[in-house]
């Protein structure tokens, strides 16, 4: 199959810009519109663009870990962040805040909402990557599929 140079070049330019924008949505989202889900969808769109340009082999080169590992880690993180307040006599999804004084950056405010958003981001990104990997795989011959 012949690949288009224009599509390849455009996809490679857009991919990195979309990933940076998805990270912006992730980190800005717990204080403004956006968050893990919106950032994950933008990252998924970047994966779709990558798939159009290079196929499933290029999608597999995006991360070193398998997509179901990313999805599982994100689901675990989101569940832990949601349930830890119960162990501390709080309610589910109660937010915790901490302010740290970082030498170069100054005062940095951390929130459990950000950790939850990172988990949601990983779930959405892992799911989209897993879908493109599944759609892009070649079907097994009938005799091997029965095994």
Give short descriptive properties of this protein.
single chain, 147 residues, mainly alpha, 6 helices, 8% strand
Order of helices and strands: HHHHEEHH
Unreliable segments (pLDDT under 50, ≥5 consecutive)?
Answer: none
Distance between the termini: 31 Å
- The total number of structural domains is 1
Structural class from helices and strands? mainly alpha
Output the strand order for the largest sheet.
1-2
Radius of gyration, taken over Cα atoms and rounded to an integer in Å: 19 Å
- Helix coverage percent: 55-70%
Arithmetic mean pLDDT: 85
How many DSSP E strands?
2
Biggest pleated sheet: 2 strands, antiparallel
The proportion of strand residues reads: 5-15%
Principal-axis shape equals globular
Describe this structure in words.
This protein has about 150 residues and is mainly α. It has one domain. Helices cover about 65% and strands about 10% of the residues. It has helices at about 5-30, 35-55, 55-60, 65-85, 110-135, 140-145, and strands at about 95-100, 105-110. A two-stranded antiparallel ribbon has the order 1-2. Strand 1 (about 95-100) and strand 2 form a beta hairpin. Helix 1 runs antiparallel to helix 2, helix 2 packs parallel to helix 5 (about 110-135) and helix 4 (about 65-85) packs antiparallel against helix 5 (about 110-135). The longest helix is centred in the C-terminal third of the chain and has 25 residues, at about 110-135. The radius of gyration is 19 Å and the shape is globular. About 25% of the residues are buried. The model has no long low-confidence stretch (mean pLDDT about 85).
């Amino acid at each position: 199959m012949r690949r288009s140079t224009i599509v390849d070049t455009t996809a490679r330019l857009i991919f990195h810009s979309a990933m940076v924008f998805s990270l912006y949505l992730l980190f800005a989202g717990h204080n403004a519109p956006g968050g893990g889900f919106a950032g994950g969808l933008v990252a998924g769109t970047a994966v779709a663009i990558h798939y159009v340009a290079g196929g499933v082999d290029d999608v597999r080169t995006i991360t070193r870990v398998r997509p179901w590992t990313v999805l599982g880690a994100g689901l675990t993180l989101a569940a832990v962040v949601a349930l830890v307040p119960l162990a501390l006599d709080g309610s589910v999804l109660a937010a915790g805040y901490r302010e740290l004084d970082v030498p170069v950056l100054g005062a940095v405010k951390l929130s459990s909402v950000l950790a939850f958003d990172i988990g949601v981001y990983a779930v959405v990104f892992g799911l989209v990557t897993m879908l493109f990997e599944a759609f892009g795989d070649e079907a097994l011959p009938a005799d091997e599929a029965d095994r």
